[in-house]
Amino acid sequence: MIKAEQFLSQALQKGIGFYTGVPCSFLTPLINRVISDRSVQYVGAASEGEAVAIAAGAWLAGRETAVICQNSGLGNTVNPLTSLNWPFRIPTLMIVTWRGQPGLKDEPQHELMGEITAGLLDVMRVPHRPFPTDPDDIAPALEAAHASMSQTGLPFAFIMAKDSVADEALNQPQREIPPPGIYADLRALAGRASRVALLERMLAAIPPQAAVVATTGKCGRELFTLADREQHLYQVGSMGGASAMGLGVALNSKHPVIVLDGDGSALMKMGNFATIGAYRPDNLIHIIFDNGVHDSTGGQMTVSDSVDFAKVALASGYARAATTDDAQGFDKAFKAAQQNAGPQLIHARIQPGSMDKLGRPTVKPPEVARRFKAFLQATSTNVGQS
Questions:
Q1: DSSP per-residue letters across 136-178
Q2: Which one, of 199, 198, 204, 234, lies nearest residue 362 by Cα?
Q3: Which CATH superfamily is domain 182-379 in?
C-alpha cells in the first residue's frame, strides 16, 4: 500500500498535472488527494468517455494528463479510446480500478468486467501493468508508462487493485452556483439557413487566434472543404466528444475556443453540457448545427425537434445561450458570443443536407492533432500549468 501523495508527486515530476475522471470506491484515497491537492488540476466528468475526450483536449493544450475511473467505466471509454486517441495518437495515463478481481468477493455487476479488464485493454491495444503498491515501485512504473506513451503516442493504463492506496481525507472547495444565464431568441421563422452558409459566416468573423473543434461527420468535412487551417481540429470519430474536447482545450488555454457540434452528437453526450456549465470556461463558444437528422448516414431523424438545446445549456450553467434559424440571427448570436464571457451556446436550427462537392480531410489525424497543438502553443500563453 502506498500514500496518494507519493504517487502524485512522482507523477507530477513526469509532468502529469491534469486529472479527469469518475470516482470509484477503490479510487477514493487517490481521487480525494487529487481533488484536495492544489498543485494539480482535476475535472470531474459526467462519464468516463467524456473524461477521455476532456483529457485529449487538455493534451492538445499542452498538458500531460491522467484519466481515472472504475473498470466498469471502460465500456464508456471504448469509443473515444479507439476512435479519438488511436487515430489522432493522443496519449493519456489511465488509472483503472479492478472491481470484480477473480478470487475476491465483490458485487455481481463487477464479475464479468473483473474477468475481462486486462483483456479489454489488450483488445483496445492499451498497454497496461498493475498500479504500484510499494513506494519503490512508483518511479519504475511511471517511467514504463512514460516511455510507452512517448514511443507510441497512445494511452497506457495502470490497473488498481483494492486497498492499493492508504485512506485520504477529502478537502474539496465548494463550487459557486452561477447566476442565471441570459437567453436570446433570434429566430426569424421564415426559412432555415444551410450549415455551409453559417460556416462561411463564422469563418469570416472569427479572430485569427481562435481554435475550432468540429464534430465528426459532414460538419468537419464542410469546414475542411471551405478552409483548412492549422487551428482546425476535425474529429473523424468519437461522436459526442467534440464539446468535451473543447472544454479540455478551453480550461488550459487563453485562446477563444469554438466547438462546432451537431444535434445527434450533442444528444449522445448531454452530460457534457453539465460539466461545461460547472467549470464555466469564459473562452468557450459551443455551436450546435441542428438539422434534425443523422445527415452522414442517410438522413434518419434524430429527436432534436423536441429539444431546446439553448434552454438545456442555461439550465446546465452556461452564461448565455441563443436560438437562431437564419443567417442574420446567427450573425447576431455569434457577434454577441464573441463580445461576452462564456461559456455560450448557439442553437442554430438549419436545413438538412450538405454542399455538393464535399471533400474529406486529406491531412492525417496525427498531423491535424500536432499542428493544432503547435498552433495553441505558438500563439498564446496556456493556463493551468503545474
A1: HHHHHHHHHHHHHHHHHSS-EEEEEPTT-B-------PPPPPP
A2: 234
A3: Thiamin diphosphate (ThDP)-binding fold, Pyr/PP domains (3.40.50.970)
As assigned by CATH, the class of the 4-160 domain is alpha beta
What is the residue type of 105?
A: K
Of 208, 206, 211, residue with least CA distance to 61: 211
Cα 84 from chain centroid (whole Å): 10
How far apart, in whole angstroms, are the C-alpha atoms of residue 276 and residue 247? 6
CA distance 11 to 25: 21
Whole-angstrom distance, CA of residue 270 vs CA of residue 183 = 19
> Rounded to two decimals, what is the model's pTM?
0.94
CA 114 to chain centre: 26
Indicate left, alpha or beta for 267 from its phi (over 0: left) and psi (-120 to 50: alpha): alpha
How far apart, in whole angstroms, are the C-alpha atoms of residue 71 and residue 69?
6
Q: What is the mean pLDDT of the chain?
A: 93
What are the pLDDT digits (tens) for 16-57?
Answer: 999 999 999 999 999 999 999 989 999 999 999 999 999 999
pLDDT, tens digit (0-9, with 9 covering 90-100), for 143-193: 999 999 999 999 999 999 999 999 999 988 888 888 899 999 999 988 899
Three-state DSSP at 299 gives coil
Helix (H) or strand (E) holding 268: helix 263-268
| Segments of the chain assigned to CATH 3.40.50.970 | 4-160, 182-379
**Mean pLDDT, to the nearest integer, of 266-286?**
96
Q: Are 193 and 199 in contact (CB under 8 A)?
A: no
| 299-335 confidence digits (pLDDT tens) | 788 898 899 999 999 999 999 999 999 999 999 999 9
The beta-strand segments (E) located in the chain are 16-21, 41-44, 64-69, 93-97, 128-130, 156-160, 182-185, 211-214, 232-234, 257-262, 284-290, 293-294, 300-301, 320-324, 344-349
Does residue 292 come out as left (phi exceeding 0), alpha (psi in the -120 to 50 range) or beta? left
User: Does residue 223 have a pLDDT over 60?
Assistant: yes
